[in-house]
Amino acid sequence: MAEEEHTTCSRRVKRKTSSALSKQALWTDIEREVAEVLVGHDNYIANLANVSAVIYYGLNDWLEGPVKYTNWSGFYFCSDATQMCTLGPFQGKSATVSIPYTKGVCGHTATKRTTTIVPNVHDFPGHIACDSASESEIVVPVFRPDGSLVAILDMDSPSLGTFDDVDRAS
């Protein structure tokens, strides 16, 4: 196991020095790393914790200097029965534990079942500010093989307009 962790860290350092990567190539690299860390593991909480870390550090290592691409990356588990999103594994500052489907970008995405990109969170009615540094956000629904909603992936950025159609497609 220690060897696998070392390999993952080595890839992350290698990506950081490769600032010439396009955003699409970066997402392809992140998707490949996610697939690698999931191999042989069936604990969904541990897997989502690793996915959160791969996304958070992968995106932030892509930019050079103190600028962050994302200041929060993580999952909320969704329950149609209770109409609630409940905090799951994440990277970033502490977050709201429960979000009703009727509130915020996460609730909106859980209700609409489509990716939501918010270029300026201050313009989104009912936005829930967990980190005052957040300026833009993308929330992506995650579905079970049967098509039912299981979770949402929420990513915040400390910059306006960070997320775009490349992020949506990835």
Please tag this protein with its features.
single chain, 170 residues, alpha+beta, 6-stranded antiparallel beta sheet, 5 helices, 24% strand, globular, disordered N terminus
Task: Please provide a written account of the structure.
- By secondary structure, the protein is of the alpha+beta class.
- Helices cover 38% and strands 24% of the residues.
- It contains five helices and six strands.
- It has helices at 2-16, 23-38, 44-62, 104-112, 165-169; strands spanning 72-79, 84-92, 98-100, 116-118, 136-143, 149-157.
- A six-stranded antiparallel sheet has the order 3-2-1-6-5-4.
- The longest helix has 19 residues, at 44-62.
- The radius of gyration is 16 Å and the shape is globular.
- The relative contact order is 0.14.
- The model is unreliable at 1-18 (pLDDT under 50).
Could you give a quick summary of the protein structure above?
The protein is an alpha+beta fold and 170 residues long. It has five helices and six strands.
How many strand segments?
A: 6
Question: What structural class do helix, strand and pairing data support?
Answer: alpha+beta
Strand content: 15-25%
Radius of gyration: 16 Å
Low-confidence stretches: 1-18
Strand order within the widest sheet?
3-2-1-6-5-4
The pLDDT mean sits at: 87
Quaternary state of the chains:
single chain
Terminal Cα span: 28 Å
Shape: globular
In DSSP terms (H or I, runs of 4 or more residues), the helix count works out at 5
Largest sheet: 6 strands, antiparallel
What is the H/E order?
HHHEEEHEEEH
Helix content: 25-40%
